[in-house]
Write a structure and sequence with these properties.
This protein is mainly α and 386 residues long.
């Protein structure tokens, strides 16, 4: 689907290049997409090389380890042997990303390489897709700056190409909205269906579509949005038939219930019941993971500001963001506390308000984000919240 967009850009570029306005063609056509793709990809290659030489070279580990840690093993296991007929940690993960890994590995590639190809490809394609969406709301120059700032933001940059489902999820939700903006509703619906099978909250992109259909009085389109919802329901039903429980929620509640998670849960429960002595449990965990707490609290504040600005761009974004954030808080805030910033910032409308008109400030922020992204990637490989 997205490849047709590149073909259209190339044809426009070629036709203008053959005229007397070659410079204008270059500026109009490919450069505004190639600049962020080349810039961000180059930084990723440099960082990957540095991290490999720093962390894995002396151990003799494979270079693929730079892109794999924590939940990566669950995706590998699903791709290798699918889901078991009993409750297991892998049931917490939705099937589309590991299914693609499984399909690609069937042609002879290893599972880690297949996972990296899918993640990296989706991450690269996501950059111009996001920029296309931004151009619907801003000038092309504004959209370019916004794209650079969003994709250099540490949670997005780090998980843009590591072996997680985030880049696939980001691409599919953005394609859903981009095709909708262009009136290609069947393509939009197809992308929404795949997004619904990629991440647990992927289905909530349909609420943005529903809001837009209703305000445009396109009531007949709303009924079609039941298809992604029914697909998620079908997956939940499949997990129930296999395990005898709603495995998606049960797996998260049981297998991500570490010592720190349990202390947070007990502390919050105690405070809610008037036992303020439970605050010491929260303070213990908070002080033990102070950098993570600072990052998470800062992320929540920043997300609130960006959500407000996204709502000013398009009220449909507010519907999507509010429903997604509420479900993330409800199911993932305690067990997935360390992942909270990542989960929030892969809701693409949050990235659209990331912009400054001051060029010097944009350059300064980009430099800071590059440094923080390296630190974030390093933390992904060596640190965690357990």
């Amino acid at each position: 689907m997205i490849f047709s967009e590149f073909a259209d850009s190339y044809r426009t570029f070629a036709s203008r290049l053959s005229s007397s306005h070659g410079t204008e063609a270059w500026s109009y056509g490919l450069r505004r997409f190639l600049v962020p793709v080349a810039f961000i990809s180059s930084i990723r290659v440099v960082f990957a090389a540095l991290l490999y030489l720093t962390l894995f070279r002396e151990e003799g580990s494979s270079w693929i380890q730079v892109f794999a840690n924590w939940d990566t093993g669950h995706y590998y296991l699903i791709a290798l042997s699918w889901y078991p007929n009993f409750l297991a940690p892998r049931w917490a993960f939705f099937p589309f990303y590991p299914l693609l890994i499984r399909i690609l590995s069937s042609v002879g590639l290893s599972i880690p390489i297949s996972a990296l190809i899918i993640s990296t490809t989706c991450g690269i394609i996501s950059i111009p897709v996001f920029q296309r969406i931004a151009e619907k709301y801003y000038t092309k120059g504004h959209a370019l700056t916004t794209t650079l700032l969003y994709f250099l933001f540490p949670p997005v940059f780090v998980f843009l190409g590591v072996n997680y489902s985030e880049s696939l999820f980001l691409l599919l939700t953005m394609l859903t909205w981009l095709y909708h903006l262009r009136g290609a509703e069947y393509k939009s619906l197809l992308a929404a269906c795949f997004a619904s099978l990629t991440r647990p909250y992927g289905v909530f992109i349909v609420f943005a579509l529903a809001y837009d259909y209703l305000r445009k009085r396109q009531f007949g389109m709303v009924a079609r949005l039941l298809i992604p919802i029914l697909i998620v329901f079908g997956w939940v039903l499949y997990s129930f038939l296999e395990t005898g429980t709603i495995a998606i929620m049960s797996a998260t509640a049981i297998f991500w219930n570490s010592g720190n998670v349990e202390m947070i849960r007990q502390g919050l429960s105690g405070v809610m019941h008037g036992d303020f002595s439970s605050v010491r449990l929260l303070l213990f965990v908070g002080l033990h993971h102070l950098p993570l707490v600072i990052v998470s609290v800062s992320s929540v504040i920043l997300v609130m500001i960006l959500c407000y600005k996204a709502w000013k761009l398009d009220a449909a974004f507010a519907v999507y963001l509010i429903t997604s954030i509420l479900i993330i808080i409800w199911f993932d805030f305690i067990p997935g506390f360390g992942s909270f910033p990542r989960l929030l910032f892969f809701l693409f409308p949050i990235g659209l308000p990331m912009y400054t008109k001051r060029r010097w400030l944009a350059i300064l922020v980009i430099g800071i984000l590059i440094i923080l992204s390296y630190v974030g990637w390093l933390a992904f490989l060596i640190d965690g919240f357990a």
